[in-house]
């Protein structure tokens, strides 16, 4: 919360605008950001005026549902407690809430039945009294999206959450030495009939208590898993069966023992939603080129493909080349319905044969207007392709791209490069 936010600025234009702004509660109910209250622009300490501004802001929102975020400061525990008390006085109006509590400060849950307006909660940190909030949140029937730092205090927060549609879990580095209890997390997943998205960002996880048996996620549409090793990724893959899955992201940061996760993944496909899968992202180590080709051949319906740390050699690219008969029937080539490809394959990977890459892309752009597959379904041409610029020799990059792709770009094809500027990664169009 600071004086540069839009509602405050409106009050400074003129008297009429000030009156109008302060009498329009919608302006004050969805723009509250309290991150800066611990770091006032003048001073370096929190004074009484800061709390008065917060209370004024909340009062101007009247009875409207509140969207706000608060990031505490670990060196100001009393400030944290005071701000939380102010916010909790309006807890019945919480709608979309981001709380990042750095330290142990957290007040007990208020003595109410539920949070009737709450639809989304992002709760980061390991504060005290978290267990007192669990019954209240479970009774909040409109809560659809929950994001948590997974500290030991949150073991009791495992599913089922019957009302949730999205569950995201981030494992802090402080908890990395402990085994993540996957069996407890997913043990009641079959009861989460409304759960559509699971995002597990466990990049610091060093050990897992595996699930005793695969659990059915009946309505799951999107699954994202990021872990450290192939062995842990295998444990997670084996834990889920998702017959309606549409989007899958699997990332493994390290591969110290040279394991291959592809076998476990093919087993996952056999019991999950491979016919419905439309988007696939594979990242990190543990994916052999020949196994990735085999995986893709098992997913005929995917339309979006993203691969990271994948060497683009001719053996991998050749099966993706499309060839058609004179009447438009697909004669060879797999996954003809992919419309978007991203190869973000890292500084350690390379494009060993740029021409093989160009041939694959152009074969998916120059698709006959009457093209169809063996099932009679229409085949559309590739819409966009993205790749890392550092995967090619920088000295030859521009001339190669212009030589190979300028014509199809002029025809409307979207070719984007990922580049790095001052530590920021951006996408840019063909030079």
Structural topology:
Layout lengths: L5 H5 L4 H8 L2 H5 L2 E2 L14 H13 L5 E6 L5 H12 L5 E8 L18 E6 L4 H9 L6 E5 L16 E5 L9 E2 H5 L10 E5 L6 E2 L5 E2 L5 E6 L2 H10 E2 L5 E6 L9 H10 L7 E6 L4 H9 L6 E4 L6 H4 L5 E2 L5 E3 L7 E4 L10 H12 L18 E5 L5 H17 L3 E8 L2 E6 L2
Parallel strand pairs: 1-2, 2-3, 3-4, 4-5, 5-6, 6-8, 7-9, 8-11, 10-12, 11-13, 13-14, 14-15, 15-18, 18-19, 19-20
Antiparallel strand pairs: 16-17, 20-21
InterPro entries: LRR_dom_sf
Protein name: F-box domain-containing protein
Organism: Bondarzewia mesenterica
Protein described:
With 431 residues, this protein is an alpha/beta fold. It has helices spanning 6-10, 15-22, 25-29, 48-60, 77-88, 130-138, 182-186, 230-239, 262-271, 289-297, 314-317, 354-365, 394-410; strands at residues 32-33, 66-71, 94-101, 120-125, 145-149, 166-170, 180-181, 197-201, 208-209, 215-216, 222-227, 240-241, 247-252, 279-284, 304-307, 323-324, 330-332, 340-343, 384-388, 414-421, 424-429. It has 3 domains: 1-40 and 47-159, Leucine-rich repeat, LRR (right-handed beta-alpha superhelix) (Alpha-Beta Horseshoe); 173-278; 303-430, no CATH class. 28% of the residues lie in helices and 22% in strands. The chain has a 15-stranded mixed beta sheet, with helices on one face. A two-stranded parallel ribbon has the order 7-9. Helix 4 (48-60) links the parallel strand 1 and strand 2. Mean pLDDT is 80; it is low at 36-47 and 421-427.
């Amino acid at each position: 919360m600071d004086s540069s936010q839009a509602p405050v600025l409106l009050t400074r234009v003129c008297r009429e605008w000030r009156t109008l702004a302060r009498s329009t509660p919608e302006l004050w109910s969805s723009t509250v950001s309290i991150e800066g209250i611990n770091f006032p622009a003048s001073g370096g300490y929190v004074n009484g005026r800061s709390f008065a501004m917060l209370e004024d802001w909340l009062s101007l929102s009247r009875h409207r549902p509140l969207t706000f975020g608060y990031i505490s400061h670990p060196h100001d525990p009393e400030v944290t407690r005071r701000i939380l008390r102010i916010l909790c006085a309006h807890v019945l109006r919480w709608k979309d809430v981001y709380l990042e509590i750095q330290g142990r400060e957290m007040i007990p849950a208020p003595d109410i039945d539920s949070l009737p307006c709450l639809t989304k909660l992002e709760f980061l940190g390991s504060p005290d009294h978290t267990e007192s909030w669990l019954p209240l949140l479970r009774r909040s029937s409109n809560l659809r999206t929950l994001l948590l730092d997974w500290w030991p205090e949150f073991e009791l927060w495992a599913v089922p959450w019957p009302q949730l549609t999205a569950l995201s879990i981030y494992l802090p580095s402080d908890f990395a030495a402990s085994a993540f209890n996957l069996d407890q997390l997913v043990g009641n997943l079959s009861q989460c009939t409304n759960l559509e998205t699971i995002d597990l960002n466990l990049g610091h996880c060093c050990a897992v208590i595996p699930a005793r048996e695969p659990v059915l996620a009946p309505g799951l549409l999107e699954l994202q898993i990021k872990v450290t090793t192939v062995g842990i990724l295998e444990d997670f893959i084996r834990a889920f069966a998702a017959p309606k899955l549409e989007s899958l992201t699997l990332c493994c940061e390290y591969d110290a023992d040279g394991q291959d996760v592809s076998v476990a993944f093919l087993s996952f496909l056999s019991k999950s939603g491979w016919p419905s899968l439309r988007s696939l992202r594979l990242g990190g180590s543990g994916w052999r080129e020949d196994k990735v080709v085999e995986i893709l051949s098992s997913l005929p319906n995917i339309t979006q493909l993203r691969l990271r740390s994948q060497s683009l050699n001719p053996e991998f690219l050749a099966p993706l080349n499309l060839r058609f008969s004179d009447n438009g029937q697909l004669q060879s080539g797999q996954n003809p319905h992919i419309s978007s490809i991203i190869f973000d394959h890292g500084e350690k990977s390379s494009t060993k044969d740029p021409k093989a890459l160009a041939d694959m892309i152009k074969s998916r752009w120059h698709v006959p207007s009457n093209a169809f597959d063996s099932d009679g379904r229409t085949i559309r041409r590739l819409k966009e392709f993205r790749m890392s610029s550092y995967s090619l020799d920088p000295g030859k990059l521009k001339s190669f791209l212009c030589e190979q792709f300028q014509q199809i770009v002029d025809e409307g094809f979207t070719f984007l490069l990922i580049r790095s500027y001052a530590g920021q990664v951006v996408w840019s169009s063909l030079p």
